[in-house]
Amino acid sequence: MLKNGLLALVIAAAAVSFAQAEAKKGKNGGMVATSEGHPIEFVVKGQEIVFYVNDDDGSPLSTKGMKGRATVQDGGKTTTVQLAPAAPNLMTGKLEAPLGAKARVVFSASLHGHSLTARYVTE
Predict the structure, then answer these.
(1) How far apart are CA 111 and CA 66, in angstroms?
(2) Average pLDDT in the 66-87 region?
(3) Residue 36 region, left (φ>0) first, then alpha (ψ -120 to 50), else beta?
């Protein structure tokens, strides 16, 4: 019984920690997720999606030469958006339609053999 109670406490603490990480807002008003120590901020501007990629110390990480994509699940449909680097630390792409509430977006990119993955759920 004590083992089950302890397991429930650990799961509850992890859920609270996860919720706090997802609620974090970035300098540009977007959601922030961390991958391999790199904070990545996700911002939606109409039908454009923008990811601000930062180094582990929070400074802008150059995306020159970075290759990436966003996998978007929205309204029962899954699409892939190719992302293009833009100075100084952006990865941008165009959506077919504006995102709905609770859309799931997965950012995937690689630079110098380093893979980054970040997950977001729109509000």
Answers:
(1) 5
(2) 97
(3) left
